[in-house]
């Protein structure tokens, strides 16, 4: 036997979310303009376009024999469970998807192996096999507090689908504005969509706009989950149809915050531009309200191929428990009747008779307060499941640091480490089978542009993606491993024009020195004040 010099452990491959299995044999496969792509369908076009965007190489496709340096895409349901794939990079690269989504995710992983050094572009050699932990991996975008047009939403989809998120929850209505055209109630868009938080201009989606978002999302294997927030968060409806809403009801927090922030209080029939919550409600005892809700949900369901309709239910602070229960019981049943699975914020679990199978979205703390845990568990008792969005770790509109220029602080200050170190099954101590998945919400009271969204999303959305996708027991599911891996995303993010927050918690510079030089076109955007 010859004595072996112990080798330092190789750093993990720079992959986020980290796969179920990923080995780095070391070395590289050059990526040259002579490489060819094998495969067909949308995955082939995705791969071609993504490599072009990242490297400038326009690789041709071929039906010929596989040669060194080529990239092969194929489907084989036996390689993994749903959305899974295998990937090897050796003298050629091969991705085998268990299904079309798996192929798409294999491509996203392959793109994370792209590097550039003195010898040009290459792929790190790798052996990967992978499939998600949770079937529901969501991101919520609040397009009500500030409106984001179709192009911005598509750019948002590009960003989060690359991290293997597969549900896009669109918060389409709130006190500050209504964002979805409804044929049966046309004044919603002519009278209730022009406003936003802070007095900024609003906007709305035509049905074609919404279809375009749904189709684009589907092309990136994302399901749109539309939300109409009811019975509260409905001040804007009153700008169009005053007979559907109650007069504003003030609460102490609203009054204190409005005074503190110098924001106006809600006035019936006028656009609400502050950030306060809990002051509005539709009229729960009027039949016309249910005609309205039925029309809106029916039209939305017709445009939505995914299984879910989110009916809101949060912060109905001016509504009695009995009225609230009767409303959400009726509306959850109506949603089922329309053929969709209702999703609702966890407060809806306070109603004894919510429709069976309703999915609850938990937004309380990782140490649940008051009745939150009980309300959330009631969804499970009614045959439903839970989406975990614990606000003190998963709310990406919270500031990274107390003095961060954008974002809120009410739930917590969420630095990158806090966003990374939480476990969805531990929050309410429920078994994994009762958890549909994880969602990271981005509320937009303080966010007006795609650049604002980027700053709050990156790098924390990468942390949430790993919680949603990677196995709990993986040796790389540690903060130390994550921060080293995510640091290596900086060049690709800069190249894609993503102005991430250069948090000092992440060793960006070391990763830059160790690997890929930044593209000359790139711009690092730091936090920016208005
Ligand atoms: C709470 S938690 C809300 C939203 C706000 C957000 C701001 C929950 C379901 N609702 O109405 O936009 O806080 O962080």
Structural commentary:
The chain has 530 residues and is of the alpha/beta class. Helix content is 32%, strand content 16%. The chain has 18 helices and 19 strands. A hairpin with a 3-residue loop joins strand 5 and strand 6. Helix 1 packs parallel to helix 2, helix 3 (150-161) packs parallel to helix 5 and helix 16 crosses helix 18. Residues 516-530 have low confidence and may be disordered. It binds ligand TNX. The site of ligand TNX has 11 residues, from loops. Ligand TNX binds next to loops.
The count of strands amounts to: 19
Strand content: 15-25%
- Unreliable segments (pLDDT under 50, ≥5 consecutive)? 516-530
Strand count, sense and barrel status of the largest sheet are: 8 strands, parallel, barrel
């Amino acid at each position: 036997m010859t004595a072996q010099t112990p080798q330092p452990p190789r750093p993990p491959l720079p992959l986020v979310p980290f796969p179920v299995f990923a080995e780095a044999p070391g070395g590289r496969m050059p990526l040259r303009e002579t490489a060819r792509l094998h495969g067909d369908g949308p995955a082939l076009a995705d791969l071609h376009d993504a490599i072009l965007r990242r490297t400038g190489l326009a690789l041709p496709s071929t039906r010929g024999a596989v040669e060194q340096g080529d990239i092969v895409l194929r489907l084989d349901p036996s390689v993994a469970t749903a959305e899974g794939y295998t990937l090897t990079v050796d003298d050629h690269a091969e991705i085998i998807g268990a299904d079309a989504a798996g192929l798409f995710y294999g491509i996203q992983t392959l793109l994370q192996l792209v590097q550039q050094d003195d010898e040009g572009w290459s792929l790190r050699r790798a052996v990967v096999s992978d499939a998600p932990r949770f079937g529901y991996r969501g991101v919520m975008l609040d397009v009500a507090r500030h409106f984001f047009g179709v192009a911005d939403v598509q750019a948002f989809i590009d960003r989060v689908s690359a991290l293997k998120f597969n549900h896009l929850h669109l918060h389409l209505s709130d006190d500050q504005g209504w964002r979805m055209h409804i044929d049966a109630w046309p004044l919603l868009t002519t009278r209730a969509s022009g406003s936003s938080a802070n007095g900024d201009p609003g906007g709305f989606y035509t049905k074609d706009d919404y279809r375009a978002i749904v189709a684009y999302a589907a092309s990136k294997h994302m399901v749109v989950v539309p939300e109409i927030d009811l019975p509260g968060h409905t001040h804007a409806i009153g700008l169009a149809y005053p007979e559907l809403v109650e007069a504003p009801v003030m609460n102490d927090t609203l009054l204190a915050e409005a005074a503190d922030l110098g924001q106006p209080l809600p006035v019936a029939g006028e656009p609400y531009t502050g950030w306060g919550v809990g002051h509005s409600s539709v009229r729960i005892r009027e039949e016309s309200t249910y005609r309205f809700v039925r029309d809106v949900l029916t039209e939305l369901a017709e445009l939505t191929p995914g299984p879910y309709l989110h009916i809101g239910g949060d912060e109905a602070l001016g509504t009695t428990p009995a009225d609230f229960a009767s409303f959400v019981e009726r509306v959850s049943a109506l949603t089922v009747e329309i053929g969709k699975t209702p999703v609702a914020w966890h407060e809806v679990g306070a109603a004894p008779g919510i429709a069976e199978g309703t999915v609850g979205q938990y937004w309380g703390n990782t140490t649940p307060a008051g009745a939150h845990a009980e309300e959330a568990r009631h969804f499970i008792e009614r045959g439903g499941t839970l989406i975990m969005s614990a606000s003190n770790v998963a709310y990406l509109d919270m500031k990274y640091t107390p003095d961060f220029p954008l974002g809120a602080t009410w739930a917590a200050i969420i630095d990158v480490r806090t966003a990374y170190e939480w476990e969805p099954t531990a929050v309410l101590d429920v078994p994994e089978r009762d958890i549909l998945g994880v969602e990271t919400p981005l509320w937009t009271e303080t966010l007006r542009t795609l650049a604002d969204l980027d700053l709050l999303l990156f790098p924390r959305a990468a942390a949430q993606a790993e919680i949603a996708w990677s196995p709990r027991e993986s040796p790389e599911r540690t903060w130390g491993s994550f921060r080293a891996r995510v640091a290596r995303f900086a060049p690709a993010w800069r190249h894609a024009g993503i102005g991430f927050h250069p948090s000092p918690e992440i060793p960006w510079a070391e990763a830059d020195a160790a690997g890929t030089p930044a593209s000359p076109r790139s711009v690092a955007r730091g936090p920016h004040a208005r």
